[in-house]
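Forum > Structural Biology > Help requests

Title: Can anyone predict the 3D structure of Probable phosphoketolase?

Hi all, first post here. I have the sequence for Probable phosphoketolase but no way to get a structure on my laptop. I'd be grateful if someone could post the structure tokens.
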Amino acid sequence: MPPDDTTPPPTALTEEDLAALDAHWRAANYLAVGQIYLMANPLLTEPLRPEHVKPRLLGHWGTSPGLNLVHTHLNRVIRDRDLDALCIWGPGHGGPAVVANSWLEGSYTETYPDVTRDAAGMARLFKQFSFPGGIPSHVAPETPGSIHEGGELGYALSHAYGAALDNPGLLVTCVIGDGEAETGPLAASWHSNKFLDPVHDGAVLPVLHLNGYKIANPTVLARLPEEELDELLRGYGHDPLHVTGEDPAAVHRAMAGAMDTALDRITALQRAAREDGATERPRWPMIVLRTPKGWTGPAEVDGLPVEGTWRAHQVPLAAVRDNPEHLRQLESWLRSYRPEELFDAQGAPRPEVLACVPEGERRLGATPRANGGLLLRTLPLPPLEKHAVPVDKPGATLHEPTRVLGDLLEDVMAATAERRDFRLVGPDETASNRLQAVYEASGKAWQAETRPVDENLDRHGRVMEILSEHTCQGWLEGYLLTGRHGLFSCYEAFVHIVDSMVNQHVKWLRTTRRLDWRAPIASLNYLLTSHVWRQDHNGFSHQDPGFVDHILNKSPEAVRVYFPPDANTLLSVADHALRSRNYVNVIVAGKQPCFDWLSMEEARVHCARGLGVWDWAGTEDGTREPDVVLACAGDVPTQETLAAAQLLRGRLPDLAVRVVNVVDIARLLPAEEHPHGMSDFEYDGVFTSDKPVIFAYHGYPWLIHRLAYRRDGHEHLHVRGYKERGTTTTPFDMVVQNDLDRYRLVMDVIDRVPGLAVRAAAVRQEMQDARLRHHEWIREHGVDLPEVADWTWDG
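Reply #1:
Sure, ran it for you. Structure tokens for Probable phosphoketolase below:
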């Protein structure tokens, strides 16, 4: 085991080493301040005037000096040890720091050749920051070396572990701000070290940066006594190393010692597991860095303390253009870094500033790990025919769709066993979601204690389960962004927990599509199952189909939502999603026995179209337009629609019924609103422009209205879906309570087809009576009516 001491021995830095580290740090600080404030006079070759300062001051200074310190010292150890390294900048609002370091090392200019490493380029670097037509104030997709959007806090550590998975030679340093450390997602992600395989995975080095304050308040961890903080971090499974101080020289020496001690311990732990066969879960080192917020900035402004307080969080001097004293302080602050020592007359960094910077792809801004699409390999997917279920005629057999998919995923796991670039993640639900076939190819990652009763735990497993949707999401995002593939399986109702996280990822994808230097990454794929219509046993708390509403609010170019109605269409959709790039794909599919409607070839064609008329299910004869369209999206709505069509065929044989099944819900949008949308001509050809459309939809009905509101036939569209009515009940009672059942759909047809209300009054009454009979039956017998439970398609 590593030693328990928390004060690392000092590293023997020469005075030359110390001067080089300090020069690089000062240069990065100068560039960070310049980005926040300046739009001209970047080298202060003349006295600072108001017109040199931006009219709107935006950005975050407070965290930047600490980030610059970490970056400087990572440079040293990467160079000296020839490390393959990546850094996740949790305080992502410290964008000025990360951009500054990228410019210093040259990776920024290589990415953006117009931002040269000279005075003109520095001026451009400064002006573009938080400026119209420029770059965001956060670490963003535009930032070389980044895989982490800093706009929302909480996900840095899970991203770091996701990046380290299956990257055995990679060091992932993760800077965690003390504000971020207060979030629920970050708190849960500390447990990721129980899933990190020291043999096949890389290492994560957390750096908890305690500068004491958030925007306006102190931070919890910064106010804990050091002993209590150590107990917390040791409880999480880490050995903390402390670096504390305000004197730059002392902090540089302490930080160098902490970095070297941590990396020596990581090397020893990996060697023990990889060469000596050690199986005990490692206690990984981490660094606790305490420096003042806004370190080296103004100590006091307008008579109020700033450095070391919450006032340093964003822009310490806010009235520089209008207040001469603020302007004087800004110039004094900038000159305190002695820029004439850091940059030559042309504005290029002097050699001593770059003495600690690594070369080529070892630079943090140039690592291909942060541009994962460059490393992405095609996923070896099996032929779908190998796993397709035979369908001689529609509705003659039943299968559990996700169980069928599980067999395909087992093949994917087996095919990637050597290359290790596919992971399945989910919150404790792999077997519950019928995907347990994957365990034949890979068990569940687990480094903690095991007991004889445990099943399928594997120190080297690639199935990831933790009862934290946030952590699952973060792992998978980090994995995908560094060039691998994966799938997130989740109960439909609880995927909402990651609403905000997927929002950030979609924004990332949308931005990267406009950056030609960012190579496309594998899509983020969700399989949502245990869905609303078959959560009759768990009850109301488990019934929520609204994630797709959230997704379809996002950038149309980056999001896709699919409702495969049976096992073969699920295989086809999953194959498409796993092959795709730069999307968020949401697949909603059931795990309960479901009728098989389409052969594999029919499923391929149907999924390629996104929707289609099922001629075999309707009663059109081809000589006239349909009297009514029965549309459906989702497995249970499809079954209820076909049951309604069967009732109509028997009760109203002269009625021309068209059945339309929708797999790709975005097909309902106009073509100009979504790449998968339909033209009005196509839409009217399928749904008609003047006939009643009764649409049985898996989720909240108003989504369909929102997607189709501009269509000519919208006034004739009537949607049935989930209406927030549920409890612990029978499967069919769920659809009855929400008016999605077959009897209600038949009644809707009678109510909306002109002339049927009178002519089919007896049929409507029969349907109403069936609903009442159902109500009484389930309360007496506890199960659904035999005519429902034993229903089969006889078309």
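The mean pLDDT is 95. Residues 15-358 form a domain with the Rossmann fold fold (CATH 3.40.50.970).
Shout if anything looks off.
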